[in-house]
Every structure is written in C-alpha cells, then in structure tokens.
Amino acid sequence: MDKKTFAIGILSLTAVILFVANLLVPQSRVAAEQLVKDRDYQAVTANWQANDDALYILDNRSGMMAAFIYDPNQRAMVPRAVRPVMEAFRP
Asked: How far is residue 80's CA from residue 89's CA, in Å, rounded to a whole number?
C-alpha cells in the first residue's frame, strides 16, 4: 500500500464518519425570543402559530398591544391584532 492509497482511504473514512454524524444530529427549530424594553414601549418576539413567530409591541402609556407577523406575499410586517393588554388578564 502506498501513501496515495492510504491517504484516499483515510479521507474516504473521514467523509463517511462526517456524513453519518450529520444524519444523526437532532433537528432543532430556531426560535426567536428577544425582549427590548424602554420607558414607553416594549417589544417581544414569541411564537404565533406552529411555524410562525410574531413581534408583540406594547405601548406602556396607552396600554395597547399589537401583534405583527411577516407576510411573505406582501414582503412586509402586517398587524394581526391590536388590543388592550388588560383583555389578556380578564377571567
């Protein structure tokens, strides 16, 4: 066995190991969960539906909260709901 054959064998074995390792890695979903807080506004990202994230913006002065999601057809953030925050805490 010469050096060339040995190098090709090692590289092939390494490629097979990396391929199998790539198949065995569990699939993880990326989730955006960030919070930005200031005196007048708060912005939070969270799950909206199964595969969608939403941007929630809270106006601390008026007590209103809006949920925005990205619409790929319009290529823009569109408001989905605008409601007072206190509606979330009603029984």
From this structure: 19
Element (H, E) at 64: strand 64-71
Predicted confidence band of residue 31 (pLDDT cuts 50, 70, 90): low
Retrieve residue 42's tokens: 């708060």
Question: pTM score, two decimals?
Answer: 0.54
Spatial distance between the Cα atoms of 56 and 68, rounded to a whole number of angstroms: 6
> 13's torsion region: left (phi>0), alpha (psi -120 to 50) or beta?
alpha
The SS3 call for residue 21 is helix
